[in-house]
Amino acid sequence: MSATYIVNGVLIRERKNCYHSDEKKSLHNEEPEKSSLVDPALETLDPTPDIHSLFLLYNDMFFGGVLGGCEVKWSPRMTSCAGVCSYEGRGGLCSIRLSKPLLIFRPRRDLVETLLHEMIHAYLFVTVRDRDRDGHGARFQYHMRRINEMAGTHITIYHKFFAEVANYKQHWWRCDGPCQSRRPYFGWVKRATNRAPGPNDFWWKQHQQCCGGKFIKVKEPDGYTGSKKTKSTNPNAGNNSISKKKDLLTRTSNPASSSSNSFSGKGYILGSSKGTENHVVVFFF
């Protein structure tokens, strides 16, 4: 027989002695047996743990307490990635944000493993100023394997929450130019927010040079009222717009929709200026 309880977010199983022999008693009067951080029993015993408590616990367990200057918080609007770790060299500030929309309905183990994934990034930032553009090089993979062996977790380089990411992308645009027949996206842009493709997109300049088509919105969430309607001086403009939307939706299906919904997981350096210590580095998972 055994008793199960939680201590600081860790599942503890303690064997109860049910033998009469002193010799057998001595065999079972041992230290409590620690289980995996992602033990299935925790899904019901502690389904919604406090992320700050987990952070403090894991900081001591796996990172020697060096992440005291790092914050962790939920992001209510982040829907393309499960977690983000950003670090500003000059001030030594480190921030981990976890996607509430993606993780709130996922199993507890996904939250734990995503948090540990981002904490590895933070640890490498703080200790060795690791600025590997890919973000998941040899150092990252060493600590990933180390923690997986110690904690019974399955931390990975990229998440697989593709269905959840796709579910939040309810605003669709399609280009009416030549790129609608080109792989891999066939002119489709799908987003979780009502932000039309434009000059702020890193690929916009290349699109203008290679295609030059216009993006027309063809889908939005049911009952959505956020977009402002503008009156047109052309009495037939409304009918033409509706007709064009239907044509773009039905002309061809998108065989590479899964590609457009997946996230590459690569990090990018943002806000760079002179000197590497002024960079703001952001890694996504």
Defining traits:
single chain; 285 residues; alpha+beta; Zincin-like; 5-stranded mixed beta sheet; 3-stranded antiparallel beta sheet; 10 helices; 34% helix; 19% strand; globular
Shape: globular
Taking the alpha carbons of the first and last residues, their distance comes to: 41 Å
At the fold tier of CATH, the topology name of the largest domain is: Zincin-like
- Estimate the strand proportion: 15-25%
CATH superfamily of the largest domain: Metalloproteases ("zincins"), catalytic domain
Name of the CATH class of the largest domain:
Alpha Beta
The number of strands is 11
Sheet having the most strands = 5 strands, mixed
Q: Please give the count of helices.
A: 10
Number of spatially distinct domains: 3
The percentage helix is 25-40%
Architecture overview:
The model is unreliable at 23-28, 229-235 and 252-279 (pLDDT under 50). 34% of the residues lie in helices and 19% in strands. It folds into three domains: 2-35, no CATH class; 43-159 and 264-284, Metalloproteases ("zincins"), catalytic domain (Zincin-like, 2-Layer Sandwich); 168-224 and 235-261, no CATH class. It contains ten helices and eleven strands. The chain has 285 residues and is α+β, with helices and mostly antiparallel strands. The strands form three sheets. It has a five-stranded mixed β-sheet with strand order 4-6-5-11-10. Strands 1-2-3 form a three-stranded antiparallel β-sheet, with no helix packed on it. Helix 3 crosses helix 5 and helix 5 crosses helix 6 (138-151). The chain starts with a strand and ends with a strand. This is SprT-like domain-containing protein.
